[in-house]
């Protein structure tokens, strides 16, 4: 037995993970940009500044969040190890939510970011059911909401709010199709994984271990 | 087309038949022909005001974004040396304080017995007249020294000034005798200087970081966490000593789950190894320190094998970590901690940390403890304070705590119980500190309050202490007021401004205004010659030769850097009696204490009991933030950490509600059990600041348990009067 998993409580969700080397997803080829986030789990202290910054930036309503923390502790006293992960929508290259959306509200935007056009969304929640990462929530105003990679900031030349606030510098955002970008360099130089690779969704949030 | 948007369509659709809306719903927006799918939430605001934070006491520079008169979000100020553009969750959630619906809105006078929380809202005029009259009565009857000020937070400076003008020196903060006091005295005795706040630690350049009594990462001081993460990213080795598998322990190469109360034994054993194996910085010690031979003799028998019997840390681990620590010197930092009042021997333990750092040669070194520089800002040219106030009565008549260099908050509280001190304290002015949670032994605090002639509380939220006030003076939050300039000693000299982002809500007023209005009524107008705090602050900045406009526009002005380490060309000076680092302290010896720290084994828990330890969560600053609904959304109650095996033996399950009962039979509020592998079997842990019972705190009330009410026993540091609080034991029962 590998030991117990202790997901933290309060603004956090549990998750299981499997090791996978980052690959050049075939579905991402041909796009000019492929946005990705790289989370350095060694540096993260699970403080949740990213959650608060996202909520402030995106005016996320009380009781909901677009990103969350998972603190995973394994082993038995005193032989323990821990991994902290700031998690959010994986902006999959093969997003099941987009396929599940009956109105076209869920769609793939600039750089592969998966967005929901609020005005097209009927709030049917098919996308919520289809997401293997539980990264969407029903906004009280009647549409489904989720992480946008802060595309409104990115298009203005800024970093996503969670990346900008992080006091441990554990969050990195950039274009994986640019081999010189920080995210490309990090994934070349460090061991990484994605969550639930077995789904075949080709997620674009990577975790350095 | 009608004005109905898709959003409204859905809302209507939920209440009525969808078909009813079809006619108006078939717009271009419905079919996605709108060309702006990337919605901008528009929270950048129409203006951005730089100021500094007050969610904790680190005082990071922030940018407040304002849209239509409302603060939409708070981000880090990239120009500010303490935030560097980044923030912790508390600072980010600062709007939760500003828009807290439970804020104190209008002045109030008590109408029933103290503590019954029955008040009547009154005008400022009436509240201030009442306060001034009571203060005049106190002065007439008992002399000005009978008034004490407890203050925590930057706006307290106005009230400190008021108290001095009134004629009292009795100004205390729980942050000394209930927090970092022993550390400051320990370092003062060794190096002739304190570490202050922000601590003068160059973590980002450390090659080895040893945490012994710091849970950095859960203790979320922004700059320090940034530097800590940077050091880890650069490959620093981390040694963490903690009975609990802390967040930092999860990043450490070495986690030493020490038996609580035995840290000093480990520190002495590390010194033993480093000296016996000749791993210390010999040149540094020869040049800068005195007392090495006595230290060498003192630790000769403090072997790892001896320490193992005390600490339960394997001798080979002690040897290996000592070697790793020495291998990184001088960029090897043994973190001095911050909240260090644990067992009553805290000054001596802090001395041991200071001495170990000296052996590693880390003081005044890059990657160690740096020597800060501070921007010189002339004091406001006030009229000199009159009279000769009596010395504070904060120490017992027969015992002096001779090396305390600040007033003891716990001592002033004791002196309010008639006849216990050299004279009685009869009035309290409480600014921004919830003494019923900040001081140990809350029942004694209540006894002291009941004996007072007068108590006034200045605060933002209706914390427990507010319920005990005679008069409540509602202060504006940090985002609604201007305070004094902040220019702490740091790596670069700087000065930061706190300015009004939005006008005060309700009928709250800035602290400077409240203090000034009281002063005017006391006939002390000479001490408040300025019209408002901004005039005061800008006078100081202008007198120092800096541009006030630049400061107000950017939030901060930075001075010329000076060398802070020997590597930069600094020549270290030590303000000790010998002018050297004092490994052996003649001062301590002369005062009747051990000149080199001596270990005394801690008391064992009674059968069936666990030592109660407490600490922090990154999302909260004690009890001050637990009513912040943004912060409580991500962390809304504390848990009692108990070793999973112990829980199983007690028949308790993870997640169920339990009660902790201390050695004196005091029961905690119900608290969720965290049965975990992450803690030793002889102690339990909880995050401090929960378990509020104040009626007015809707989000924090009845959430988790308050550790301070379990602290019925303290062990006082004989050197400086710090109240060691980790000396209580609890058993755990199903609620």
What does this protein look like?
With 209 residues, chain A is α+β, with helices and mostly antiparallel strands. Chain A has a single domain, classed as Alpha-Beta Plaits, CATH 3.30.70. Helices cover 17% and strands 23% of the residues of chain A. Chain A is built from 6 helices and 11 strands. Chain A has helices spanning 49-57, 96-100, 126-130, 151-154, 161-165, 182-189; strands at residues 18-19, 35-40, 68-76, 79-87, 106-108, 114-116, 137-138, 144-145, 171-175, 192-194, 205-208. In chain A, the strands form 4 sheets. A 5-stranded mixed sheet of chain A has the order 1-10-11-2-9. The longest helix of chain A has 9 residues, at 49-57. Chain B has 735 residues and is of the alpha/beta class. Chain B has 4 domains: 1-39, no CATH class; 108-173 and 384-475 and 503-529, Rossmann fold; 179-372 and 572-590, Dimethylsulfoxide Reductase, domain 2 (3-Layer(aba) Sandwich); 610-734, Barwin-like endoglucanases, CATH 2.40.40.20. Chain B is built from 23 helices and 26 strands. The chains are: A alpha+beta (209), B alpha/beta (735). At the A-B interface, α1, β3, β4 and α5 of A face α1, β3, α8 and α22 of B.
Tags for this model:
heterodimer; A: 209 residues; alpha+beta; Alpha-Beta Plaits; five-stranded mixed beta sheet; two-stranded antiparallel ribbon; 6 helices; globular; disordered N terminus; B: 735 residues; alpha/beta; Rossmann fold; Dimethylsulfoxide Reductase, domain 2; seven-stranded mixed beta sheet; six-stranded mixed beta sheet; 29% helix
Write the layout of secondary structure elements.
The complex is a heterodimer of chains A (209) and B (735).
Chain A: E1 18-19, E2 35-40, H1 49-57, E3 68-76, E4 79-87, H2 96-100, E5 106-108, E6 114-116, H3 126-130, E7 137-138, E8 144-145, H4 151-154, H5 161-165, E9 171-175, H6 182-189, E10 192-194, E11 205-208
Parallel strand pairs in A: 2-11
Antiparallel strand pairs in A: 1-10, 2-9, 3-4, 5-6, 7-8, 10-11
Chain B: H1 6-15, H2 19-25, E1 47-52, E2 61-67, E3 70-76, H3 89-92, H4 95-98, E4 108-110, E5 119-121, H5 124-142, E6 147-151, H6 157-166, E7 171-172, H7 174-191, E8 208-212, H8 222-233, E9 237-241, E10 254-256, H9 263-276, H10 282-288, E11 289-290, H11 292-298, H12 304-311, H13 315-327, E12 332-335, H14 346-359, H15 409-414, E13 427-431, H16 435-438, H17 442-450, E14 454-459, E15 471-474, E16 494-496, H18 511-521, H19 533-543, H20 548-554, E17 556-558, E18 581-582, H21 586-590, E19 610-615, H22 629-634, E20 639-643, H23 644-649, E21 657-662, E22 671-676, E23 683-687, E24 715-716, E25 723-724, E26 729-734
Parallel strand pairs in B: 6-7, 6-13, 8-9, 8-12, 9-10, 11-18, 13-14, 14-15, 19-23, 20-22
Antiparallel strand pairs in B: 1-2, 2-3, 4-5, 4-15, 16-17, 19-26, 21-22, 21-26, 24-25
Helix pairs in contact in B: 1-2, 5-18, 6-18, 7-14, 9-12, 9-13, 9-14, 12-13
């Amino acid at each position: 037995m590998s030991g117990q998993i202790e997901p933290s409580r309060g603004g956090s969700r549990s998750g299981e993970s499997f090791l996978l080397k980052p690959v050049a997803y075939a579905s991402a080829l041909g796009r000019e940009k492929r946005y990705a986030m790289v989370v350095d789990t060694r540096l993260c202290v699970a403080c949740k500044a990213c959650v608060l910054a996202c909520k402030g930036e995106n005016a996320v309503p009380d009781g909901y969040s677009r990103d969350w923390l998972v603190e995973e502790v394994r082993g038995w006293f005193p032989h323990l190890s821990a991994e902290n992960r700031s998690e959010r929508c994986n902006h999959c290259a093969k997003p099941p939510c987009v396929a599940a959306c009956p109105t076209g509200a869920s769609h793939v935007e600039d750089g592969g970011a998966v967005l929901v056009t609020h005005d097209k969304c009927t709030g049917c929640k098919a996308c919520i059911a289809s997401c293997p990462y539980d990264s969407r929530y029903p906004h009280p105003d009647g549409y489904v909401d989720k992480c946008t990679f802060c595309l409104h900031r990115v298009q203005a030349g800024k970093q996503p709010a969670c990346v900008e606030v992080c006091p441990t510098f554990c969050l990195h955002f950039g274009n994986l199709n640019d081999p010189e970008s920080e995210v490309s360099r990090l994934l070349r130089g460090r061991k990484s994984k994605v969550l639930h690779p077995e789904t075949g969704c080709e997620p674009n949030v990577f975790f350095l271990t | 087309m009608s004005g109905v948007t898709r959003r409204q369509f859905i809302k209507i659709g939920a209440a009525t038949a969808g078909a009813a809306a079809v006619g108006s719903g078939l717009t271009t927006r419905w079919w996605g022909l709108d060309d702006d799918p990337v919605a901008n939430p528009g929270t950048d605001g129409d203006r951005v005001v730089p100021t500094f934070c007050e969610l904790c006491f680190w005082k990071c520079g922030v940018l407040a974004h304002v849209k239509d008169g409302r603060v939409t979000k708070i981000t880090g100020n990239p120009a500010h040396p303490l935030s560097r553009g980044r923030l912790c969750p508390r600072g980010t959630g600062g709007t939760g304080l500003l828009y807290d619906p439970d804020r104190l809105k209008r002045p109030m006078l008590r109408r029933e017995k103290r503590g019954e929380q029955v008040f009547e809202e009154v005008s400022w005029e009436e509240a201030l007249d009442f306060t001034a009259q009571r203060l005049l009565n106190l002065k007439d009857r008992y002399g000005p020294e009978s008034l004490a000020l407890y203050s925590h937070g930057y706006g307290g400076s106005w009230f400190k000034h008021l108290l001095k003008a009134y004629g009292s020196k009795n100004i205390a903060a729980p942050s000394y005798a209930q927090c970092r006091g022993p550390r400051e005295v320990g370092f003062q005795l060794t190096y002739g200087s304190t570490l202050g706040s922000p601590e003068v630690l160059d973590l980002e350049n450390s090659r080895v970081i040893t945490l012994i009594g710091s849970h950095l990462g859960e203790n979320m001081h922004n700059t320090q966490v940034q530097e800590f993460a940077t050091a880890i990213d650069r490959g620093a080795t981390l040694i963490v000593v903690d009975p609990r598998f802390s967040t930092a322990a999860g990043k450490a190469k070495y986690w030493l789950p020490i038996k609580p109360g035995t840290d000093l034994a480990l520190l002495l054993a590390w010194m033993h190894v480093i000296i016996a194996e000749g791993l210390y910085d010999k040149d540094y010690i020869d040049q800068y320190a005195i007392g090495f031979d006595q230290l060498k003799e003192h630790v000769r028998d403090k072997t790892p094998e001896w320490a193992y019997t005390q600490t339960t840390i394997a001798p080979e681990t002690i040897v290996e970590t000592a070697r790793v620590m020495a291998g990184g010197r001088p960029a090897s930092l043994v973190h001095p901690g911050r909240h260090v009042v644990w067992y009553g021997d805290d000054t001596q333990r802090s001395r041991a940390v200071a001495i170990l750092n000296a052996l590693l040669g880390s003081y005044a070194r890059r990657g160690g403890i740096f020597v800060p520089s501070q921007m010189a800002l002339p004091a406001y040219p006030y009229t000199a304070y009159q009279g000769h106030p009596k010395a504070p009565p904060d120490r017992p008549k027969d015992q002096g705590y001779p090396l305390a260099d600040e007033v003891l908050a716990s001592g002033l509280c004791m002196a309010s119980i008639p006849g216990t001190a050299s004279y009685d304290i009869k009035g309290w002015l409480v600014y921004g500190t919830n003494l019923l949670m900040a001081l140990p032994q809350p029942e004694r605090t209540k006894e002291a309050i009941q004996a007072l002639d007068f108590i006034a509380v200045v605060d933002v939220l209706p914390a427990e202490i507010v319920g005990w006030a005679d008069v409540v003076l509602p202060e504006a939050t940090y985002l609604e007021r201007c305070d004094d300039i902040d220019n702490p000693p740091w790596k670069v000299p700087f000065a930061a401004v706190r300015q009004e982002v939005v006008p005060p809500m309700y009928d709250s007023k800035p602290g400077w205004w409240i203090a000034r209005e009281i002063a005017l009524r006391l006939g002390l107008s000479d001490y408040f010659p300025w019209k408002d705090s901004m005039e005061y602050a800008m006078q100081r900045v202008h007198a120092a030769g800096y541009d006030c406009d630049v400061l107000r526009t950017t939030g901060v002005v930075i001075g010329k850097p000076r060398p802070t380490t020997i590597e930069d060309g600094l020549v270290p000076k030590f303000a000790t009696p010998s002018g050297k680092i004092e490994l052996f302290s003649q001062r301590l010896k002369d005062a009747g204490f051990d000149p080199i720290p001596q270990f005394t084994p801690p008391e064992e828990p009674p059968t069936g009991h666990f030592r109660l330890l407490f600490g922090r969560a990154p999302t909260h600053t004690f009890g001050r933030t637990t009513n912040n609904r943004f912060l409580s959304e991500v962390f809304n109650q504390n848990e009692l950490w108990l070793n999973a095996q112990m829980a199983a033996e007690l028949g308790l399950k993870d997640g169920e509600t339990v009660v902790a009962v201390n050695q004196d039979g005091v029961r905690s509020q119900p608290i969720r059990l965290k049965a975990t592998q992450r803690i030793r079997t002889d102690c339990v842990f909880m995050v401090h600041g929960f378990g509020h019972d104040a009626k007015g705190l809707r989000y924090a009330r009845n959430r988790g348990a308050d550790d301070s009410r379990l602290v019925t026993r303290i062990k006082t540091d004989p050197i400086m009067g710090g109240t060691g609080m980790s000396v209580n034991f609890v058993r755990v029962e199903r609620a």
